[in-house]
């Protein structure tokens, strides 16, 4: 269940839809602010309508809204009634938008195990999926003033395109090692960097040392591990989908460390460390 109305305790029953946000670039920026604000108010499952409601939606605005929505907890497009019927479907905006929309949907599907983990963490701890950049460092004023990017859990930083005619943008990275997921180039924060944002994607960065559960090519869950800084360790939590029913899934904790010239990933349990039972793919080993 989800609602566009709000009340104290609504998070116990479902999520929130941002309502009829005005169509346009200002509405797109407002959509992100709404989801961030709802998360901080204790409503972790929230999202918005791709493209807004009413008014004209350019192919560029539709695509950038869809690319943002693919990284929000609640993700949907919406067909419009009357004279604008069908404007909510990606094929209405041309072949190029359709191709890029497919790529955004495929990445959303690949990240489903991560969204499942974030859902369980939200239920158990109250931490929202979508978090402001200052989440782990509220004392840093520069991060508190950043309203055009967000953290998706602890592992990813998403920098959507919120203005027209843009093929790159400035991104402020918090303290620590971050990797551009498109190029695997490493950056050490706190720092502001320039990231390419061609029509087909928006900038996304992975935190060094993180363990990201994703769907592999065979449809099973695999561990995407981003290399920590040499001499440091990392880790992550995976809460798998238990399937139908009310059975509580078992959380899996993983540790990441360097051992000589290679990276070791271990599952942590009461008896110490053991080999992961899931496939592991290490990323972020590209120099430069």
From TrEMBL:
Biological process annotations from GO: carbohydrate metabolic process
Chain ranges of the Glycoside hydrolase family 31 TIM barrel domain: 1-118
Region of interest (Disordered), ranges: 266-288
Chain ranges of the Glycosyl hydrolase family 31 C-terminal domain: 126-212
GO molecular function, one term: hydrolase activity, hydrolyzing O-glycosyl compounds
Keywords carried by this UniProt record: Glycosidase, Hydrolase
Database matches in Pfam families: Glyco_hydro_31_2nd, Glyco_hydro_31_3rd
UniProt similarity note: Belongs to the glycosyl hydrolase 31 family.
Protein name: Glycosyl hydrolase
UniProt organism field: Streptomyces haneummycinicus
Taxonomic path: Bacteria, Bacillati, Actinomycetota, Actinomycetes, Kitasatosporales
